[in-house]
Design goal:
heterodimer, A: 78 residues, mainly alpha, 3 helices, 0% strand, B: 671 residues, alpha+beta, Alpha-Beta Plaits, 6-stranded antiparallel β-sheet, 21 helices, 11 strands
Chain lengths: 78, 671
């Protein structure tokens, strides 16, 4: 039972790590994406730059993923 | 590498100006400096803009007119540019260019008259047919709704009908029309309607022929949109007219095709001349546009600009051979001129391998003159980081093959050509890291070499070299060896950012900006020091004295960054260390791709257990998921590798150029 609670908490923590960062990234990308869509309409040459700018907040979810993966590794720690 | 440039001033007797400009235009190496600003800032008003003489101005208007006409003609006739031999176009171009402006204009005008004579009727007929087709196609959806109703009406001899088209949101107006037309026709009318699409509704007003005039008058007053058929069909019964419209819709495209075929034959002989004329006009006008950028006095003309150092001598020789001492080229020493680097146009001269990686400058400006060109850094690290993320032999082979095909096929299209080459090198690195991870479309090779073994239903890992507890083992599994790979990626980040900071130090030294170099050295010191301290927590055997040195380096680096760039430097030192963790994406994205590949394999393996149909479904799942993974696997690592360059690495040293080297030159028949 105690083991099951431990695994459950680990899984919940990992989900929290990736879930919250994914939401944050989504929110940031939605705003940057909308702004860049407007910018591209005015200046199409910004297309390449916009791809990079939209990718910038992905750092959050990527680090969230790394942390989640490290947390799941805890289940093997006795 | 940034090409070394020389600033030159060309002075000569005014009579020679026109010929000197032609020679410079022919050589095509001088990036012209616009002297307008300098002239307007001069107290000495004897120096003015060079002006085009009156005759030239007339020619300019004629050439602009011809440019528009030739452009229209090319648009109408759409000559097959790819099918032309470049030598033919160049020969024609040289022939046109060799004539003086006046003769050139009359020659092109004559050619245009000939082309117009051969093609005008056909082009006009084609335009008419296109308009007709577009108009008829508007009737198609309406016809499909109205025709069945109209056919019923046509059987009633004393009844007439009018088709209407109404915006769907105003559909309720039909009730009003019904009431009003009933009044006009004493109740001998009916309206039948049907929705055409989301936006419109077609309606047919059926009424006694006796009231035809009154109903038309009423509808005109109400400004209702009647379906007006082409004039030649308007008098026919609606069902007959619509059948004819349908027949025309089927017939017109084949008529257009026939005209295109005839046009192709008629224009074939003019295609080369048209393209050569367009290029010649473009070059002539460009030469005229350049004139106001030059300066003159009563006696002399002055042309200023930059050109690669290697091209100074050929230009000097060409001018001396033609004009002797009447035109003089002087190289200006700009070393003492602060800010000259900003004005100097930048041209890159890279080796054949790195040249394709100049694609990065589609997203960023060129590096400033006098700084280090980071193309080589990009050429080395971009495909390497891409491969580190994707890391799969099978995927690498596919990416490499597609990249090479694109590179070869689009040799004439610079963007696709460069992107194809970059993909090819990225594919090669993907194969290399695929070997390191022993991944081939996911875990196939790991199972083939029995690295992954299933014992009593539980999967176990047996390394080909080393054990699970060894620091270095083969293959390096990205899932099992996540922590190890995370450390490797951070070391890659340290090297990548470190290279950027070293370039920053060199840039500072080249610009004699000691503080700039000190700041970058401080940042580098913080990075290295921080890694040495972190190593103590990760590696048990890491000696204490190295940790102490690391701590000192970090603190010293912060101080140095502060001295070099003030508070901004101190903040940058902290942010710089944070940037290092951004390289964790290298393993995170790679891991996601590896897991997705394994899921594709697992699903297809499970399906394949279900007999012949299962094998087919399994193969379908395998192809579908791996294709999706490759597409994501190409885009995502490419974007993130780019980002690591532009934000984390280039951000440490890159200073953008204000001006690109764009020499004043002819298209030479190839615009």
């Amino acid at each position: 039972m105690e083991e099951a609670v431990k695994i459950g908490l680990i899984a919940f923590s990992a989900a929290l790590a990736i879930g919250t960062t994914a939401i944050a990234t989504g929110l940031a990308q939605s705003r940057i994406g909308a702004a860049m869509a407007g910018a591209i309409a005015e200046r199409p040459e910004l297309t390449g730059t916009s791809v990079i700018l939209v990718a910038i907040p992905e750092t959050m979810v990527i680090l969230g993923f790394v942390v989640a993966f490290l947390i799941t590794a805890l289940k093997t720690v006795k | 590498m940034i090409e070394k440039m020389a600033k030159v001033e060309i002075l000569g007797l005014k009579d020679s100006a026109s010929e000197a400009i032609d020679i410079i235009h022919d050589l095509g190496t001088l990036h012209i400096e616009d002297l307008s600003e300098r002239i307007s800032g001069m107290k000495n008003k004897r120096v003015t803009h060079m002006e085009i003489d009156h005759d030239y101005a007339d020619h300019e208007a004629s050439l602009n007119n011809l440019r528009a006409r030739v452009g229209d003609m090319i648009r109408d006739l759409q000559p097959d540019v790819d099918g032309m031999l470049p030598e033919d176009v160049q020969r024609e171009y040289k022939s046109i260019w060799s004539e003086n402006v006046e003769a050139m204009i009359s020659r092109i005008e004559k050619m245009l008259r000939e082309v117009e004579r051969d093609t005008r009727d056909t082009v006009e007929r084609k335009a008419d047919l296109i308009v007709e087709l577009s108009r008829l196609e508007k009737y198609a959806p309406i016809m499909s709704k109205v025709q069945p109703l109209a056919e019923r009406v046509s059987r009633m001899e004393d009844m007439a009908s009018i088709a209407l088209i109404i915006e769907r949101k105003y559909k309720t107006i039909l009730n009003y029309l019904n009431e009003e037309i009933s009044k006009v026709t004493n109740g001998e009318c009916e309206i039948i309607s049907s929705d055409v699409d989301d936006e419109s509704t077609a309606a047919l007003v059926v009424f006694n022929k006796r009231y035809l005039k009154q109903v038309h008058e009423f509808l005109d007053v109400q400004d209702v949109n009647q379906v007006r058929l082409p004039s030649d069909l308007a008098r026919k019964p609606i069902d007959e007219a619509m059948a004819e419209v349908r027949a025309r819709i089927a017939q017109v495209p084949s008529e257009i095709d026939e005209i295109d075929r005839k046009l192709g034959q008629a224009t074939g002989k003019h295609s080369v001349t048209l393209i050569a004329a367009r290029n010649a006009i473009h070059d002539r006008l460009e030469a005229m546009d350049a004139v106001p950028k030059f300066a003159q006095t009563d006696q002399v003309f002055i042309i200023s600009g930059w050109l690669p150092e290697a091209d100074v001598e050929p230009m000097e020789k060409a001018l001396t051979d033609k004009f002797g001492s009447n035109v003089i080229l002087t190289v200006i020493d700009v070393r003492e001129n602060h800010g000259a680097e900003e004005e100097t146009p930048v041209a890159l001269q890279n080796s054949p391998f790195t040249r394709y990686f100049e694609i990065i400058y589609l997203l960023s400006k060129y590096p400033r003159y006098g700084t280090v060109d980071p193309t080589i850094v990009f050429a080395l690290f971009f495909p390497m980081l891409f491969g580190l993320m994707l890391g799969d032999i099978g995927y690498g082979l596919i990416v490499m093959t597609i990249g090479w095909i694109v590179h070869r096929k689009y040799a004439q299209k610079p963007l696709a050509n460069m992107a194809g080459y970059v993909m090819t090198v990225g594919g090669a690195w993907t194969i290399f890291f695929g070997i390191v991870y022993l991944e081939f479309f996911g875990d196939w090779l790991l199972r083939w070499f029995r690295v992954i073994r299933e014992v009593h239903g539980v999967e176990d890992i047996h390394y080909l070299a080393g054990t699970a507890n060894s620091v270095f083992k083969y293959p390096i599994g990205r899932i099992e060896g996540f922590t190890f790979m995370l450390a490797v990626c951070l070391i890659f980040g340290l090297i990548h950012m470190g290279v950027g900071l070293v370039i920053g130090i060199i840039n500072g030294a080249r610009e004699n900006n000691f503080k700039h170099s000190l700041e970058k050295a401080g940042l580098l010191s913080v990075l290295v020091g921080a890694m040495m301290v972190i190593a103590k927590f990760v590696l048990g055997w890491w000696p204490a004295w190295l940790t102490v040195i690391g701590g000192l380096l970090a603190v010293g680096g912060i101080v140095a960054a502060g001295v070099g760039a003030g508070m901004g430097g101190v903040i940058e030192a902290a942010v710089g260390a944070g940037n290092l963790f951004s390289y964790a994406r290298l393993i995170a994205i790679g891991l996601a791709s590896a897991i997705m590949a394994n899921v594709a394999n697992e699903l297809s393996r499970e399906q394949a257990k279900g007999g012949a149909i299962g094998i087919v479904v399994g193969a379908f799942v395998f192809v579908l998921l791996h294709t999706l993974n490759i597409v994501i696997g190409v885009f995502s690592p490419a974007i993130h590798s780019l980002r690591l360059h532009l934000v984390e690495s280039f951000g440490k040293f890159f200073e953008p150029a204000m001006v690109r080297y764009e020499p004043f030159k002819k298209t030479g028949g190839e615009e």
